[in-house]
Write a structure and sequence with these properties.
The complex is a heterodimer.
Chain A: H1 2-14, H2 17-60, H3 65-71, E1 73-75, H4 90-93, E2 97-99, E3 106-107, H5 116-119, H6 125-141, H7 146-151, H8 153-159, H9 164-197, H10 204-234, H11 238-267, H12 273-297, H13 302-342, H14 346-357, H15 362-396, H16 399-402, H17 423-429, H18 431-453
Antiparallel strand pairs in A: 1-2, 2-3
Helix pairs in contact in A: 1-9, 2-6, 2-9, 3-15, 6-9, 6-10, 6-11, 6-14, 9-10, 10-11, 10-14, 10-18, 11-13, 12-13, 14-18
Chain B: H1 2-14, H2 17-60, H3 65-71, E1 73-76, E2 96-99, E3 106-108, H4 116-119, H5 125-141, H6 146-151, H7 153-159, H8 164-196, H9 203-233, H10 237-266, H11 272-296, H12 298-306, H13 310-360, H14 364-375, H15 380-410, H16 413-417, H17 438-469
Antiparallel strand pairs in B: 1-2, 2-3
Classes of the chains: A mainly alpha, B mainly alpha.
Chain lengths: ~450, ~475
């Protein structure tokens, strides 16, 4: 009997105009977004390679290590392979960073030069699932129960010897399959087209991430599917149910995630940038004036003065790092608060988990900033190592030998290669959101089950 | 008769469940968004003032005018007052620029910040109108004609002596007014919250706000006309709602979002990273030339510094002048390099932006968003204007800094480098960002307004013609 109901549901959905339109939409949307964003990945990748080559060229013209010390180098993260699935924070993470041994890290402009892309949401697969398919899931299910009641077929069905729970489960499965199968086909076609027409190619890790992302999307779609069934068991008329569904969708998908980050900024404030600059300057001037005092009080030898200088510089760096850590902790608190509050909406959970899995999420953003700082240290160490080596070499070589030679090997510099989280780590960091989606699913299903058990079919 | 039909249409909508839900939704959404964004404005305004004074303190703490000219002054873009109805590009975290006396002003960016704002769109009034109300415009209009046809009340209506043009006009007006009411109510709430929060809008700001609301009405009229047209063409309500949902998804969720990425493929720009590297390289070359020039004269310097007597002082001053000139030349050269490279890049970028706008204007939502953000001064144009303002300020600052350097320089060597006396920046020009005049903003967004109006009028006439020729009986 269960299979009969499932088959009936599928047929019921597939043979309507609604389904034809939804199928066209899926197809168009998913394929266009996949191909466009794969092309975007390709050009981002080419840009990355070109920028890297230009930077190498610029490093080659540097003649001595001292020059390298103040000229520094420009580094950039390579674009994530899974941007066609979820672009996430790639725009922010593609900013170039200028690293030198004489100052801090200077972050440059994003490699996405078109400001209009910030005016609208990014049309990646995550967006299609998050916004479009969630709406379509509700449009397919808003009349699942109350529609049949209106037509009177619900009474007919219950006249057979079929328990109510079987009807509910059968309806759920039938409708879900009718929704998810076209989606999977569209994703597959879009993906194949991108593989053929662009340079997109995935390694084992990326395949695993893409697969998990797809499963996550199925879970997310099922949340909305169950929600639609739930709303339809609460109503007796399908027109009421449709309006309630739209209402709920607008709140879950369009309101909560878009309002909460701004709200969190007001609740958990962080010091402004100017304030931070002021604090840094205060630390610097305080340290130097202390040193001046000490130098005035006692006559010092050159040796002592040198060590004093070094000490002051170290102190300043340490203090700067301390207030920077404090600042970043405050930002982290703000991010945490926004995440906790926005998880009321399954849509936000989906975005957090999907971007994390695609390597373009908040965790990776944090990792990149940490890695850039680490790289800055490495670069400083490498430069001082080179200087020491050059100091040794200079005494051995004559002037004629050094002229016309490259002063240092460009390859000797550390390579900027942020190692992203492993798949297991990414999965772990998105586990909470995945569980939440599961909980939403089960809760909605249970409530609709209870409600349907007591549903007045007449 | 016209009035009767209008009244019937209007009441039909007003008393329906659809209207109740949409009005509640609209009011609730706008209220939440306005309250949150007004709070956000207050936070950002405080930040802005704090930063401004912090940057002034920073300038005061420099050792000498030369250092000040070299390091530059930091200036910040104030938050736009009309961010409440249209947040636009205000979510862009790049707000501060460092302006040295010569060379290109550099936009500063923190290594770590809260990235959540770039992960989700902002729910401002513009967003509510562009997504939610545009959907409601379709929900209200999809069965305007098909519904009556299905219920066969249209036959009844036509049996009275009422011409078809009167009928369709009344239907349009009744539907549109019932759509405009929830919008106007929520705009009213927005006004009240803004007034209570004392955002201190000036006369022209209020005018811009009013214009924004008018523009939203034009946009809603355009969307409503599209819905009415589809309703006239289709036979069944189910067909018409399905087609309209399809159109809505394409107009709202696909076209505007995908166009920047299509434009990036069609009109590619040189990668900015490569431009930055080239600038770095050529700047380095200039510095190298400068240092070599200075290196050759090292002995002369040492002699001049060690010697004493009236002649030595004169020689020293002569020397300082040379150094200063060489430094100035270096800075000018670097400035020129940066300018040509960046100009090249900006030209490409502007071409890409123009192309994006051109292709995305097929969707009225895109045209609406461009016009609204430009009028609210939170759009693409604002960024350009801010940059121009910074350049203007730089010219002022350069005049100030070089004048001061000249003054202190004539006082002699010690005050030039030492800076313990005479350094006072209280008369330094202050960066006061002023928004572009409303007239200029309107001029800039005129094309989008025309497109929107064209949509509204075009589809209304299409609906009119379709209704005239429809087989109603």
């Amino acid at each position: 009997m269960l299979f009969l109901i499932i088959a009936k549901e599928i047929r019921h959905n597939v043979l309507t105009l609604r389904f034809a339109v939804i199928y066209c939409l899926f197809f168009l949307l998913t394929v266009i977004s996949m191909v466009t964003l794969s092309a975007n990945y390709q050009s981002q990748w080419e840009n990355y390679v070109r920028s890297k080559a230009a930077e190498r060229e610029s490093l080659r013209t540097i003649e001595d290590v001292n020059e390298l010390r103040w000229q520094g180098t420009m580094v950039q993260k390579e674009p994530s392979k899974l941007t066609p699935f979820s672009l996430g924070l790639d725009k922010e993470m593609s900013r170039s960073a200028f690293v030198s041994a004489r100052g801090g890290v200077e972050v440059g402009a994003s490699q996405y030069p078109n400001p209009i892309s910030a005016l609208f949401a990014t049309p990646d697969m995550g967006y299609v699932v998050n916004v479009v398919i969630s709406l379509l899931a509700l449009l397919l299910t808003f009349d699942a129960i109350c529609g049949e009641k209106e037509e009177g077929t619900l009474r007919l069905m219950l006249a057979n010897s079929v328990p109510r729970d079987i009807i509910l489960v059968g309806k759920w499965f039938g409708g879900y399959i009718a929704l998810v199968v076209p989606f999977l086909i569209a994703v597959a076609v879009g993906f194949l087209l991108s593989l053929f027409f662009t340079d997109l190619s995935l390694d084992a890790d990326a395949w695993m991430r893409a697969g998990t992302l797809l499963l996550l999307s199925l879970l997310y779609i099922s949340v909305f599917f169950t929600l639609g069934v739930l709303i339809s068991t609460f109503n007796n008329r399908s027109s009421t149910s449709l309006m309630v569904c739209l209402f709920v969708w607008v709140f879950i998908v369009l309101t909560v995630p878009n309002v909460v980050p701004i709200l969190a900024r007001q609740i958990a404030g962080t010091p402004s940038l100017g304030e931070m600059d002021g604090r840094r300057a205060a630390i610097e001037s305080e340290q130097w004036s202390q040193m001046r005092q000490r130098m005035m009080n006692a006559s010092t030898s050159d040796e002592e003065r040198h060590s004093m200088f070094r000490e002051v510089r170290e102190n300043i760096t340490r203090e700067w790092e301390r207030i920077q850590d404090e600042y970043e902790n405050k930002i982290d608190k703000q991010i945490d608060l926004a995440q906790v509050l926005s998880r009321v909406s399954p849509s936000a959970s989906y975005v957090y988990a999907a971007t994390n899995l695609a390597g373009t999420g908040i965790t990776e953003f944090r990792n990149l900033s940490d890695y850039t700082k680490e790289y800055h240290r490495q670069f400083g160490d490498a430069v001082s190592e080179l200087r020491r080596a050059e100091g040794r070499g200079r005494s051995e070589r004559t002037v004629e030998q050094t002229v016309g030679q490259e002063a240092f090997d460009v390859d000797a510099l550390p390579e900027f290669k942020p190692k992203g989280d492993s798949f297991a780590r990414s999965l772990q960091s998105s586990m909470l959101d995945i569980c939440l989606l599961g909980v939403f699913n089960i809760a909605f299903l249970l409530v609709s089950y209870v409600k349907f058990m007591r549903y007045d079919v007449c | 008769m016209f009035r009767t039909i209008f009244k019937k249409e209007f009441l039909d909508h007003m008393l329906g469940f659809r209207f109740a839900v949409s009005a509640v939704l609209c009011l609730l959404l706008v209220t939440i968004s306005v309250i949150v964004l007004v709070g956000d404005y207050a936070v950002r305004r405080d930040d802005y003032h704090r930063n401004k004074s912090a940057y002034m303190t920073e300038a005061e703490q420099e050792d000498s005018y030369m250092e000040l000219a070299r390091h530059g002054v930091k200036v910040e873009r104030p938050p736009a007052k009309l961010q409440v109805p249209a947040y636009g590009l205000e979510k862009d975290p790049d707000r501060t620029a460092r302006v040295p006396a010569s060379g290109i002003p550099k936009v500063l960016h923190e290594l770590y910040l809260n990235p959540l704002l770039s992960l989700f769109p902002v729910a401002d009034m513009l967003f509510v109108v562009a997504t939610v109300l545009s959907l409601l415009a379709f929900v209200v209009s999809y069965d305007a004609v098909t519904g009556e046809r299905e219920q066969e009340t249209i036959k009844l209506l036509m049996s009275y002596d009422v011409p078809r043009d009167r009928l369709i006009l009344a239907k349009w007006l009744g539907g549109f007014v019932s759509l405009a009411i929830p919008f106007l109510l929520s705009a009213g709430i927005g006004c009240v919250v803004i007034l209570l929060a004392n955002i201190d809008l000036s006369g022209s700001d209020w005018m811009a706000f009013g214009l924004l609301m008018g523009l939203s009405l034009v946009f809603l009229a355009a969307m409503f006309s599209i819905g009415l047209f589809v309703s006239c063409v289709c036979r069944y309500s189910a067909t018409s709602i399905t087609i309209l949902v399809l159109i809505w998804v394409i107009f709202v969720l696909v076209m505007p979002n995908i166009s920047p990425y299509v434009a990036a493929q069609a009109v590619p720009v040189r990668p900015f990273g490569a431009v930055e590297s080239e600038i770095k390289q050529e700047t380095g070359d200039q510095m190298k030339v400068f240092f070599q020039k200075m290196h050759g004269r090292r002995r002369g310097f040492m002699q001049a510094f060690r010697a004493s007597g009236a002649e030595a002082i004169k020689a020293r001053e002569e020397l300082m002048k040379t150094i200063n000139e060489a430094r100035k030349e270096l800075q000018d050269n670097i400035g020129r390099i940066e300018e040509t490279k960046l100009k090249d890049f900006t030209r490409g970028q502007n071409r890409q932006i123009a192309f994006t706008k051109r292709i995305s204007r097929i969707s009225p939502i895109a045209a609406y968003v461009y016009a609204a953000t430009d009028i609210a001064s939170t759009g693409v144009r604002k960024q350009e204007h801010f940059y121009q303002a910074v350049q203007e300020y730089q010219r002022e600052f350069e005049v100030y800094a070089s004048g001061k350097m000249e003054d202190t320089f004539s006082h002699g060597f010690r005050s030039f480098f030492g800076g313990e006396q005479d350094y006072d920046v209280s008369d330094m020009p202050v960066f006061d960002y002023e928004e572009e005049t409303l007239a200029r903003r309107i001029e800039y967004s005129l094309w989008d307004i025309v497109v929107l109006a064209g949509y509204g009028i075009g589809f209304f006439f299409a609906a009119f013609v379709a209704f005239m020729r429809a087989e109603l009986l």
